[in-house]
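Chain A, query sequence.
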Amino acid sequence: MKSWQVSQLRQISSAGSSEETFSVVLAEAQKIGFEYCSFGMKAPIPLAAPRATWCSNYPIAWQQLYDERGYIRRDPSVAHALVSDDAILWTDALFAPCREIRTEAAAHGLAHGWAQPRRDARGMVSLLTLARKDPPISAQEVLDKTERLKWLSFVCHEGMLKSWGDLLQEDMGAALSARETEVLRWSCDGKTAEDIAQILGLSEATVSFHVRNACLKLGTSNKTAAAVRAALMGLLW
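Chain A, predicted structure.
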């Protein structure tokens, strides 16, 4: 492990709040040439009303505009983070579906951005974004600083979980038995109770018993909802 990695890990591990953690991350972002930093985290459930939180040092006027116009649901970098762990640069092509976000962000001094998503085993998704007014981010800079960006996103994700974990994971305390997990795995593959009974060498009544228990633990009303919820919570690995 490199000295800068050890230093960041030590500082974030000792941080006592999300504000302290973000302060460390922002300082590190500024060391590698970025004036602004934003970090957001989203829980995998509930799906209908996602639970998320974030912090940034973006200009207040931009934060207010972004919130008022509901840009979070149209932001291509956010959409990318929900499906990929690959870092992404802000480009005209990326923001083609919503050009006003890029134009208005640039007007507030956020012209060039570099975002690193992260997803952990429990399905928690985060997005660390570094931004600045000038200069543009060159290909050489990407090569030189990718390792630092990835590491910073990792320690930020883990550090923020200490502060935000209880809030975001409020409904994620279920623990399934091995058999309940097995039954739901097959359910995710579209198998019926009869199919699962044959595969596992159980009676349909026993399969239904495990499904009912899983639904009770997960707070769902049917097998499909239980399977989806368990998968999103990372319980079916």
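Residues 65 and 71 are 8 Å apart (CA to CA). The chain has ten helices and five strands.
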